[in-house]
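Reviewers of the previous submission asked for a worked example of the structure-prediction workflow described in the proposal, so we include one complete record here. The input consisted solely of the amino acid sequence. No template or homolog information was supplied to the procedure at any stage.
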Amino acid sequence: MKETRDTIIEHAFSLFMERGYDSASLADIVKASGLSKGAVYHHFRDKQELHDAAIEHFFLRFFGAGTSAPSPDESLAAVLDDLVAGYERLLLSVATVTPDQNAYYRFLFSILPKVRVTLQEAIAATRARLTQAARNDQNAGLLAMAHKPEDVADQCLAMIEGTGLLATLEGRTDAPDAMRRMLGGYRASLQ
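From that input alone, the workflow returned the following structure tokens.
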């Protein structure tokens, strides 16, 4: 049952990427999935519900790990590793449906009006988690006191998303590795 639902979502996502939401009809999605119209309607009331499911499946679910509550003992390195791993899972998930590396950003910008508030909340929660981790590192002597934890959090967020965007624009497939290298060098400069 879940497999059928995921198949529908994957085909819908592929068509949303290829044609855009407005030009991808439910009939096209049914045809692409190879399932019956009844099977698709068994899982989704309409195209809007299917679009929402694709947003959740290919985008929002990956923000969960990064938005957990700040921990009084979590290190900056652990939080960054978790965030990059989530980003990597997101990119791998998109890659299972389309080899187009730009699909993630195209999808992100196409759904931004719909998920802006959710995204803002996820960014704020992630920023809070990174800020607390930077404070934890300062208290443990792993981060020089001259660095403001809030600035470290913003710089880390910018490096993760910026490195991902640059790798995508350059057609590289090593975005997570590039993020790890960038963040490793940055962390070393903070000591």
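The first helix runs from residue 2 to 19. We consider this example representative of the routine output the project will generate in years two and three.
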